[in-house]
């Protein structure tokens, strides 16, 4: 047998890894087995790539495979119509029947009856005054300077997401000696940083909590690192720049030393091959384009071997492009749950991986988000989450579902409850 863990890494049919593994399997003429928690992330082409590796004689032609299963929803932008149409489409059943002999799906709950519960919340922050001005300036610049080209729009979208995280991602103030300034301004400049500070302060006061904080941006991890040092909290860090030995040492330190309160991780580098079951709290500082990457990040602590209830807090800036991205992720996960959990498979959306380019129309849709349609109303109508509500959200029972400034994520469907 050739057994490949994290088999979804073979989703790109042209990557060097799949070519090397194919040559090894062919040379040894052996059976092949893929292990993965996410066999279907983006589209049917990726699924074919996995099947082609497993059974190259059967799944030998991508064009034929796509012709068998004509998943073309490009003419219908309404997600609910897509769902209803799919339920009535015999193509889905046909695909399910063909794939049944090759797929064996087991949930953590199926093999580990004693796995503790996981409760997830989305906590909303508002832009600080500094961020608000910067955000509006970025939007105005896009409207006046945009050439309409995809690359330009991609850049604007990234700048808006950086703005939602922290203004220091654009320019970090320095003192007379040229050293980066770490003071109250670092905290007050960002709405999400203020919310994070409130969460960490309460968890620290309770004691006996270890926390994972994920971000897509390594520069944001730099800001968080300086913040934790300023607050006197012990931490370790893992991103794509550290060696394997440093990686193992950091994980060992965190899992054995309870004085280390926080582990900072980049979402992609820390989402695979990492076991941090000593943590009972996971904070997603900024959501990944691919919602499966965030789910894998959560699984660093909610996995077999965990003995405590795990709390997941996903931070988002209200009335910004982040809210629109969360909505898109919700729709994707709804569809994924519908088709995968029932043994059905389909193209559940394209261009969601960070390395894939969003189309111009999708970018314009993201940039055109109307703040007045925010689930939270506006900043004046709904203040940030109160201390009393935050205490309820931090409670490990997960009883409180919605309120001003937060909403729960359903444990079955991973679909966000509507704020009321």
Description:
The strands form two sheets. The protein has an eight-stranded mixed sheet with strand order 5-6-4-7-8-3-10-9, with helices on both faces. It has a two-stranded parallel ribbon with strand order 1-2. With 420 residues, the chain is an alpha/beta fold. The protein folds into two domains: 2-105, 3-Layer(aba) Sandwich (Rossmann fold); 115-417, Rossmann fold. Residues 72-77, 342-357 and 411-420 have low confidence and may be disordered. 43% of the residues lie in helices and 12% in strands.
Number of strands: 10
Task: List the uncertain runs.
Answer: 72-77, 342-357, 411-420
SS-derived structural category: alpha/beta
Largest sheet descriptor: 8 strands, mixed
CATH class of the largest domain: Alpha Beta
Series of secondary-structure elements, N-terminal to C-terminal: EHEHHHHHEHHHHEHEHEEHEHHHEE
Count up the domains: 2
Number of helices: 16
CA-based shape? globular
Keywords: Hydrolase
Pfam families: Helicase_C (PF00271), SNF2-rel_dom (PF00176)
Domain Helicase C-terminal: 195-346
GO molecular function: ATP binding; hydrolase activity
Chain-wise SSE layout:
Layout: E1 2-4, H1 16-28, E2 32-34, H2 44-54, H3 62-68, H4 79-87, H5 90-99, H6 108-111, E3 118-125, H7 129-145, H8 150-165, H9 184-188, H10 191-206, E4 211-215, H11 218-231, E5 234-238, H12 244-256, E6 260-266, E7 281-284, H13 291-298, E8 310-317, H14 321-340, H15 360-367, H16 387-394, E9 402-403, E10 406-409
């Amino acid at each position: 047998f050739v057994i490949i863990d994290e088999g979804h890494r073979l989703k790109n049919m042209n990557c060097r890894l799949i070519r090397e593994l194919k040559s090894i399997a062919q040379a040894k003429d052996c059976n092949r087995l893929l292990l993965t928690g996410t066999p279907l992330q983006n589209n049917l082409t990726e699924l074919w790539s996995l099947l082609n590796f497993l059974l190259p004689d059967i799944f030998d032609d991508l064009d034929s495979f796509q012709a068998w299963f004509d998943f073309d929803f490009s003419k219908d932008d309404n997600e609910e119509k897509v769902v209803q149409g799919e339920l009535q489409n015999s193509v889905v059943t046909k695909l399910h029947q063909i794939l049944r002999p090759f797929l064996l799906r087991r949930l953590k709950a199926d093999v580990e009856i004693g796995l503790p519960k996981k409760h997830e919340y989305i906590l909303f922050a508002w832009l600080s005054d500094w961020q608000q001005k910067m955000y509006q300036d970025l939007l105005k610049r896009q409207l006046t300077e945009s050439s309409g080209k995809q690359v330009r729009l991609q850049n604007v979208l990234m700048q808006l997401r950086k703005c939602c995280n922290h203004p220091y991602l654009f320019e970090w103030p320095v003192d007379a000696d040229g050293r980066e300034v770490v003071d109250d301004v670092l905290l007050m400049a960002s709405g999400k940083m203020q919310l994070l500070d409130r969460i960490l302060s309460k968890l620290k006061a309770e004691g006996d909590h270890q926390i994972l904080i994920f971000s897509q941006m390594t520069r944001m991890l730099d800001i968080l690192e300086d913040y934790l040092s300023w607050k006197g909290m012990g931490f370790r860090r893992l991103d794509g720049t550290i060696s394997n030995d440093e990686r193992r040492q950091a994980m060992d330190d965190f899992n054995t030393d309870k004085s280390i309160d926080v582990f900072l991780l980049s979402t992609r580098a820390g989402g695979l091959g990492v076991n941090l079951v000593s943590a009972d709290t996971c904070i997603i500082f900024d959501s990944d384009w691919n919602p499966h990457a965030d789910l894998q990040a959560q699984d660093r602590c909610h996995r077999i071997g965990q003995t405590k209830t795990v709390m997941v807090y996903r931070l988002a800036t209200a009335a910004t492009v982040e809210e629109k991205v969360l909505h898109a992720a919700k729709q994707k996960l709804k569809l994924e749950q519908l088709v995968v959990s029932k043994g059905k498979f389909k193209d559940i959306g394209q261009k969601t991986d960070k390395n894939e380019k969003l189309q111009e129309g999708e970018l314009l849709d993201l940039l055109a988000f109307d703040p007045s349609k925010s689930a939270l109303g506006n900043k004046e109508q709904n203040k940030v989450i109160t201390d009393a509500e935050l205490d309820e959200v931090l409670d490990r029972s997960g009883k409180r579902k919605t309120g001003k400034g937060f909403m729960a994520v359903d444990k079955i469907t991973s679909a966000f409850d509507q704020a009321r």
